[in-house]
Amino acid sequence: MTLKPSEFILNEDGSIYHLNLLPNQLATTVITVGDPDRVNNITKHFDTIEHIVHKREFHTQTGMYKGKRISVISTGIGTDNIDIVFNELDALVNIDFKTRKVKKNLTSLDIIRIGTSGSIQADIPIDAFLVSETAVGFDSLLHFYKSEEIQDIKFSKLLLEHLILPRENGLPYVVNADVRLLSYFEKDYFKGITVTNCGFYGPQGRVLRLPLSNPNLNDRMAHFNYKDRRITNLEMETAGIYGLSKLLGHRALSLNAIVANRATGEFSKDPTATVERLIVDALDRIASIEAVI
Length: 293
Ligand SMILES: O=P(O)(O)O[C@H]1O[C@H](CO)[C@@H](O)[C@H]1O
Ligand SMILES: O=c1cc[nH]c(=O)[nH]1
Fold this sequence. Notes:
Layout: E1 29-33, H1 38-43, E2 48-55, E3 58-65, E4 68-74, H2 79-94, E5 95-96, E6 101-102, E7 110-119, E8 129-137, H3 153-163, E9 173-176, H4 179-183, E10 190-196, H5 217-222, E11 225-226, E12 229-235, H6 238-248, E13 251-261, E14 266-267, H7 271-287
Parallel strand pairs: 1-4, 1-7, 7-13, 8-10, 10-12
Antiparallel strand pairs: 2-3, 3-4, 5-6, 7-12, 8-9, 8-13, 11-12, 13-14
Residues 116-118, 200, 204, 234-236, 259-260 line the site of uracil.
């Protein structure tokens, strides 16, 4: 099937619509970050940089780190942006830009998020590193795709019952990390279930001036137990990343620098330094990931 100009959109220079990238500018190992400025904070450690491309909040750099070609791309905040970035990353490797057809032989990307997050467990302290073994999405993105077979529906239903959430909040979706990528990060990192939400304030239980419809939500989440595993942290992209990666045949993992502890009310004194430590640690682990043949 040839994809129509309204569905698969290319810019005048042949690059993909939002990311502004050409297929040869993307590596098969991709690091995603929320903050466009964090891209430089990662690539300043690279040995060489081949490409620097900007459009809107999407800032991409591709280069070499210890013998591995890596692209670093900022997604901005939220799973609405994840929908754009992951569909376009996939198009860059799996759609032929000349024929506008899906390729016969598909490529799987290794995609690692390096982001910040808030812990909801008192014993997961600020400035710790946490790898998301499972992600729970309250943002509803995955429900727009045919996705039942990649979701843990039993988990979703038990969580919904435990939280006593009203119907208007919708059904949370649950997707696991790629186990192979996870194996490179299990040692030394906290491991947990990450909740992805569609906002930073009300949806994560923060109150500045507006009262919440469900003020006990974070506390109830913190006490949910599934197969002896607990919900550990809140952020805004991981569930979308896991869901779309699984559907598109890519491998994904989310790494979190814990900058807030919602149970104790603390915030990191130096979040930039914590993120920098995570970047330095993660880059060496990413460089050691063996290619899947
Ligand atoms: O630090 P990043 O990667 O942006 O991630 C977290 O921080 C942002 C909110 O401050 C959200 O994007 C959340 O997921
Ligand atoms: O509490 C936090 C901290 C960082 N990012 C989030 O989304 N929440």
